[in-house]
Amino acid sequence: MLSTQKLTGFADEASRDLDKQIEATKALGWSAISCRMIGSNNIHDMPEAEFQAAADKLDAAGIHVPEFGSAIGNWAKKIDSDFAITVGEISRAIPRMNRLGTKIIRVMSYAQEPWGEDQQEQERFRRMREITKRFTDEGITVAHENCMNWGGFSAEHTLRLIEQVPDMKLIFDTGNPVFQLDRSKQNADGSFPWQDPFEFWQKIREHVTHIHIKDCMNPVSEDVEPEYTMPGIGQAKLKEILTDAYKNNYDGWIAIEPHVATVFHAPDPDSVDWQQCYDSYVEYGRQFVRLIATL
Fold first, then answer.
1. What range defines the domain where residue 82 resides?
2. 83 phi, psi to nearest 5 deg
3. How many angstroms separate the CA atoms of 77 and 113, rounded?
4. Within 13 Å of residue 229, how many CA atoms lie on the same side as its CB?
5. 37-38 and 208-213 strand pairing
6. Domain Xylose isomerase-like TIM barrel: where (predicted)?
7. Which domain CATH number covers 143?
8. How confident is the model over 102-148, as pLDDT tens digits?
């Protein structure tokens, strides 16, 4: 069975308040948080005094941070954005990761341009090599996530990133393929099919160092937000992926990223029902533990 000792989660989906994130984590019987947002900032953008106070609080609670969910090269940043923004994020992230003993940082390969337009692939490769070098020089593993970025266009795009940036590892998000078209293949009518999560996983699994758990249904079109579900209910093929991971001796961390109540991309967090988010996050974690117990 996959180890329940290596379960973590993006607890900012339960609350942006760190005390509540810790509370939700302990309610699940876990001792790890995948840090992303605390308050209104990503952890690498927090004011220094706020970060140090948060780090002390995590230490006092006995909470480990196995992963930084950074905003480096993410879906909100275009490839022609000022690279100095990325360098600044890197320079702030490294000492904070060292402070918390965190060894994995989630990055992306910058926002997708509309399909058919110039994706500036060589500039993406150049930036990803520079990002990876800066972290690996500090003993930190860079892990690219298959989100709404260039590498997320298909498993083949992700593998090209690995070829071009050999020191980089991967984070596999189980749900992201469900709402992205596979740009490596076409239907008879010239359209693109939805990605197959299990097929994507099988192609890249040897490079995966960390797994994010999301589940959802194919949206009606590419520009519509999918319906997120509890784990094992949607089309992310969680059982197949996790069973295969177990059979292939996967021993990394697994992080829940529910999106069920809190769509992390929501434009107005102040309008969110945070009690519902807290409750659904804890329930999601419990249902996921029950799911992996059946594998």
1. 4-293
2. -65, -20
3. 11
4. 17
5. unpaired
6. 23-265
7. 3.20.20.150
8. 999 999 999 999 999 999 999 999 999 999 999 999 999 999 999 99
- The answer to whether 213 and 256 are in contact (CB under 8 A) is yes
Beta bridge partners of 171: 145, 210
Measured distance CA(200)–CA(174) in Å, rounded: 9
Judged by phi (left if over 0) then psi (alpha if -120 to 50, else beta), residue 29 lies in left
Round to whole Å and give the CA distance between 277 and 184: 36
Rounded CA-CA distance 278/173 in Å is 21
pLDDT digits (tens, 9 = 90+) for 38-79: 999 999 999 999 999 999 999 999 999 999 999 999 999 999
HSE (side-chain half, CA atoms, 13 Å) at 181: 16
Please count the structural domains in the chain: 1
Burial category of 116 from C-beta neighbours within 10 Å (exposed 0-12, middle 13-18, buried 19 and up): exposed
Number of neighbours of residue 40 by Cβ within 10 angstroms: 10
Mean pLDDT of the chain: 95
Instruction: Report which residue type is found at 164.
Output: Q
pLDDT of res. 223: 85
Tokens for 117, please give them.
């337009």
Contact 147, 111 (CB under 8 A): no
The single-letter code of the amino acid at 222 is E
Is residue 288 within 8 A of residue 231, CB to CB? The reply is yes
CA distance 246 to 249: 5
